[in-house]
């Protein structure tokens, strides 16, 4: 009887130990398994669309800046002014996209702590910081376009007697900001490709 009781206790103990081992094993592997919160994925998808729109507008702006520079050099200030006004309209669209992108990045940042593994979380953080810098660059660009408009207005009124250097300097700064926007977006895509590799579940 005692032997049977001991066997039952021993068996029960083994079952409990195996159960506990299985429980902690499941918890360990579940916690270390790749995981991305749905809200993060949704915000990322929306942000990607906005980002691509910003890049498209930025590339159009680069082409337009060449036309503005050519018009200024040719003394065609009326055309240059019209081109800048058109650039402002395009830039407002990019600015609206940047503000929306900023909101999506905020959602991604809030959900980043739930991403697994930790290495992916760190890469995701770098990507989000980079895209936040892209938004800041676009804000800088927005400021330069209004500076350019003011300078061209003066040049138009004084028949080009002043402001040539200011126009050249502002266009140079705008080109640099636009290039930085493209570079930051390229870096973001690189980081998110790495992020995807770290969070890809094995079949």
TrEMBL record:
Keywords: Membrane, Transmembrane, Transmembrane helix. The chain crosses the membrane at residues 12-30. This is DUF5667 domain-containing protein. It comes from Candidatus Colwellbacteria bacterium RIFCSPLOWO2_01_FULL_48_10. The lineage of its organism: Bacteria, Candidatus Colwelliibacteriota.
């Amino acid at each position: 009887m005692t032997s049977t009781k001991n066997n039952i206790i021993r068996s029960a103990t083994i079952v409990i130990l195996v159960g506990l081992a299985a429980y902690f094993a499941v918890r360990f592997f579940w916690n270390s398994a790749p995981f991305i919160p749905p809200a993060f994925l949704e915000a990322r998808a929306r942000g990607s669309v906005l980002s691509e729109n910003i890049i498209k507008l930025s590339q159009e702006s680069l082409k337009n800046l060449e036309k503005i520079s050519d018009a200024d050099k040719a003394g065609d200030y009326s055309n240059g002014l019209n081109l800048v006004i058109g650039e402002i309209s395009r830039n407002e669209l990019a600015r609206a996209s940047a503000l929306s992108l900023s909101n999506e990045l905020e959602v991604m940042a809030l959900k980043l702590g739930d991403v697994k593994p930790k290495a992916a979380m760190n890469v995701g953080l770098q990507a989000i910081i980079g895209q936040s810098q892209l938004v800041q660059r676009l804000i800088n660009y927005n400021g330069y376009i209004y500076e350019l408009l003011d300078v061209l207005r003066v040049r138009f009124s004084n028949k080009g007697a002043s402001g040539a250097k200011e126009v050249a300097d502002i266009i140079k700064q705008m080109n640099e900001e636009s290039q930085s926007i493209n570079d930051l977006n390229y870096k973001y895509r690189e980081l998110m490709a790495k992020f995807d590799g770290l969070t890809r579940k094995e079949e």
